[in-house]
Amino acid sequence: MSTYAAPLHDMLFAMKEVGGLDAIAAQPGREDLSADLVEAILEEAAKFAAGQVDPINAPGDKVGARWHVGHTVTAAPGYGPVYQAFCETGWHAMPARTELGGQGLPTLVSTAVAEMWKSCSLAFSLCQMLTQGAVEAIAHHASEEIKATYLPKMVAGTWTGTMNLTEPQAGSDLAAVRSKAVPEGDHYRVSGTKIFITWGEHDLAENIIHLVLARLPDAPEGVKGISLFLCPKFLVNADGSLGARNDLACTSIEHKLGIHGSPTAVMSFGDGPGAIGYLIGQPHQGLACMFTMMNHARLNVGLEGLGVSERAYQHARAYALERVQGRTLVAGSRSIIGHPDVRRMLMDMKARVEAMRALAYYTAGQLDRAASHEDASVRAPCQSRVELLTPVVKGWCTEQAQRVTWLGVQVHGGMGFIEETGAALYLRDARITTIYEGTTGIQANDLVGRKLCREGGHTLDALLAELRTDATRMVAEGRASGTDDLGHSLLQGVQALDGATRHLLATYAAQPAAVHAGAVPFLLLTGHVVAGWLLVRLAEAAAAQLAAGAADADFLRAKLTTARHYMAHVLSECAGLQAVVQTGAETTLGLTDAQF
Amino acid sequence: MSTYAAPLHDMLFAMKEVGGLDAIAAQPGREDLSADLVEAILEEAAKFAAGQVDPINAPGDKVGARWHVGHTVTAAPGYGPVYQAFCETGWHAMPARTELGGQGLPTLVSTAVAEMWKSCSLAFSLCQMLTQGAVEAIAHHASEEIKATYLPKMVAGTWTGTMNLTEPQAGSDLAAVRSKAVPEGDHYRVSGTKIFITWGEHDLAENIIHLVLARLPDAPEGVKGISLFLCPKFLVNADGSLGARNDLACTSIEHKLGIHGSPTAVMSFGDGPGAIGYLIGQPHQGLACMFTMMNHARLNVGLEGLGVSERAYQHARAYALERVQGRTLVAGSRSIIGHPDVRRMLMDMKARVEAMRALAYYTAGQLDRAASHEDASVRAPCQSRVELLTPVVKGWCTEQAQRVTWLGVQVHGGMGFIEETGAALYLRDARITTIYEGTTGIQANDLVGRKLCREGGHTLDALLAELRTDATRMVAEGRASGTDDLGHSLLQGVQALDGATRHLLATYAAQPAAVHAGAVPFLLLTGHVVAGWLLVRLAEAAAAQLAAGAADADFLRAKLTTARHYMAHVLSECAGLQAVVQTGAETTLGLTDAQF
């Protein structure tokens, strides 16, 4: 087993050079946020992650959360004390706003910290993530009374939160939600069955606050008839103490491929008189409230792709540096990292991990600008860009994580297939990330539909113009520092993305099915190019620092090599992806159902 | 759960149109082999596969083989009766030569039959595969006495066989084998520890015949000092009855990601006086004997990639045709197969499965020609082509299987992550196939080293010339039937492979590490192009049959669409792969170990 070491140098470099940390720290109200403080926070988080969270991951996977007759769920071994310490030391509350009891740090900083939890244990990290999403939804949409009753304990982690969307007959199609809510005095009686409820039941916290989508008696059909209700596991008395058990129960948990430490509950609401629930937001406006959680969750699942990939990379690297086997071809390397193909796999993992980090941190930085830049004319385009990139962060990072965690197993050879080695755990955990919070297909449909074609491509065009300007500048100015090759490669990627974009915009009105047939390849192409742009910017910064005589020359030179590797091995796929987008739909839609 | 239906129509079409079934049936000594007989064999095998083998797969995965104190292993539930029926009905013996008690059928036919076992249960099928490999090694290299004692029972499946290569310190590096064999009268005393021994211990058969690599006392170092020994679990008396327990034991079995029904044993030889073993072949020539097994096994593992992919495709297709969810965009499709992205995933799976089958069957057909064509000037190039394609069948098919089984999970959405759905089983089982019998990296090194550069590229050049001729002809002749587009696409693939080949040949002497850094992308490129060629040939045959007014027009038209889909979605990756081979090595080898 390898041990986790947070890649602090890489993280800080990406936060500064593409996340815009300095500019965010210079925003009004951020006077207390210095680079030193950020570094100190990251160092403390790294200690907690490596010392507390990483060690519970493999044992938690092996045993998993356990369901008992009587509808209780025991958390995986070791989770209890670590969760308690996580709350007591303030890490649980950290990402929340100051007025809610959190640290009020920029999203960029809490993103880097969250990456560490996700690296060390996806299963464990999901509990906080779901609670945080529920906190956001309540903070934005609930009454003052509900906020006062629930938020302080949820932010602190004393109570946790869930998101109850999916029903057996309604997976991603929320229009088909059937759960009901009937008014009764100041509250409602909620009934229905929900599945795939992450951390829906467990014994880590005193109470669990379920946010539940259901229909009021007078609700119109479809997604415009869904309302959001808060149903606590234990009802809360006026003095804040816990009262009676609500009429809801976890009737089973799923037996899954991965994230065994995260209980995935089947929740039954209203087997008796109906679960008492409180309306959040306006009647029939539940979807809007839920989107507050979902956008947060989508960026966070993208970050899971990064986190689990970083961990799989560290695990494979440790093995490749230690395991001696056969005669190596790379001078100076005695272990299997000296075999060119093992080196290729590790470089591929490293390049994709750094590309994911650049994309996730960039988007987090844009979110901070969108939220609190003093100039509204800056905030608006940043917000549009975040909306454009949300499905890309989610879809692209999680797809890259499939390859990275797969390679992590492959580097181990036969040992990779043995569970005790630990490499397969990351592959199994990563497998959910392209599915939950909307599959890659759903992200891609959002990207080509709502985020591209329905707004005429303005937001992507603005981004493409920025990429083209940067690439052109690098070609011109890079000759001196020898980085013009990066500009050339980037320009090719930009052209491929631009071509595919024109094709989709021209095709959408007449052939929507053809556009959606190319949606996932388009999402991958977008991710390849935008992340490539950010890696090139990191390389440009590294070249400048090298020219200025910076001390960490090995680190900076590696940034240049890694960017070039990405160009040669990943960005080289762009022409193929463009071809699939532009010419692939005919055969995708070419067979009848019976011909499959 | 879906049920398996062997794709007999597809199988027979590929056997005839690219496997060369008619020509093989016309070989001398094959007078009894008619198309009707082949079809009848396949139909019977399909019944046994679907009725007996498929149903034990999921329960066998859930419980797995179990090791007990006392060094016994209980096979997974249901395996016992099915194995017995498998032997009694002659399916176990079927692939062997007539003189050994088998059916003496062409490899092409036994390949199609084996595909079915692999589709229905990789774990179960491994027992026969290992035994068959041991039978081949014994038949080629052992004394008449040993052959007479062991082969009849092994062919019948009454006794099973294993391959004992790997040791804890020697994974793929057989030069590091340390197990010892000391002469004692007419036999040897063997001692050492072997790991990853597939079906190394179980209760399905009366005896287990271990083929073990070990060193004689006077052995030179390295791979030239390894000899092969036969060590039976129970010693065999002169009358063929079973005698004393030999000094060998299964000290544990592995806890693996997949193939739970296949016990992967740690074998300890000679904890007492040493296991009695009999030398197979000449002293120090064990590697050559083992290669007889390994080449057989490599083609078979490639076939596993096909088999598990076909099954994953059938499983996903059944779900996509049944599950109703959301508003579909494809006219006439009410279930999720009407969502363009789900359709894209299924088309991708279908196209890759058919491409794998074409490649595996083509190679099996070449093996038959190499073995028994009447003309030696035909046999020799066929043998060279089989040797060239063996690492491609193994490496490329198993890599495609990763994507296909992954998509199989993705098509199921959230249900795919739940073990009871069964889709994840195929992903977990498939994961071993790029590792055992030599990782993809090892296959690729064999391809670019021994099979390409060290022989100056003659065999691949001959193949490329054939592809180019076919492509050029199709461009010229295909205009009438509207299939010239397939010729154009193929030509592009051939050019990419040709360019990459020239690069490797020119680079090998001066920069072997750079060549091996591009080995896996080159193997993928080779597989893409050669399998694409065969799909195009299938399409060409389909077009001709359509023009002749064949009855199964829907099936034949689907062959054309599938080939075109492969061209647009898979062959379009070739230019990117060529770029990686030609320009990717510099950064792959660009960092020091410390910079990772």
TrEMBL record, chains A, B:
Molecular function GO labels: flavin adenine dinucleotide binding; oxidoreductase activity, acting on the CH-CH group of donors
Coiled coil: none
Annotated ranges, domain Acyl-CoA dehydrogenase/oxidase N-terminal: 39-157
Entry EC number(s): 1.3.99.41
Cofactor: FAD
Catalysed reaction, written as an equation: 3-(methylsulfanyl)propanoyl-CoA + oxidized [electron-transfer flavoprotein] + H(+) = 3-(methylsulfanyl)acryloyl-CoA + reduced [electron-transfer flavoprotein]
All copies of domain Acyl-CoA dehydrogenase/oxidase C-terminal, residue ranges: 285-447
Enzyme's top EC category: oxidoreductase
One Pfam family hit: Acyl-CoA_dh_1
Signal peptide range in chain numbering: none
Domain of life assignment: Bacteria
Xref: InterPro entries: Acyl-CoA_dh-like_C_dom, Acyl-CoA_Oxase/DH_mid-dom, Acyl-CoA_Oxase/DH_mid-dom_sf, AcylCo_DH-like_C, AcylCo_DH/oxidase_C, AcylCoA_DH/ox_N, AcylCoA_DH/ox_N_sf, AcylCoA_DH/oxidase_NM_dom_sf
Domain Acyl-CoA oxidase/dehydrogenase middle span(s) in chain numbering: 163-269
SUPFAM superfamilies, per database record: Acyl-CoA dehydrogenase C-terminal domain-like, Acyl-CoA dehydrogenase NM domain-like
Domain Acetyl-CoA dehydrogenase-like C-terminal: 480-591
Keyword tags: FAD, Flavoprotein, Oxidoreductase
Gene3D superfamilies according to UniProt: Acyl-CoA dehydrogenase/oxidase, N-terminal domain, Butyryl-CoA Dehydrogenase, subunit A, domain 2, Butyryl-CoA Dehydrogenase, subunit A, domain 3
Family of this protein: Belongs to the acyl-CoA dehydrogenase family.
Protein purpose: Involved in the assimilation of dimethylsulphoniopropionate (DMSP), an important compound in the fixation of carbon in marine phytoplankton, by mediating the conversion of 3-(methylthio)propanoyl-CoA (MMPA-CoA) to 3-(methylthio)acryloyl-CoA (MTA-CoA).
The name this protein goes by in its record: 3-methylmercaptopropionyl-CoA dehydrogenase
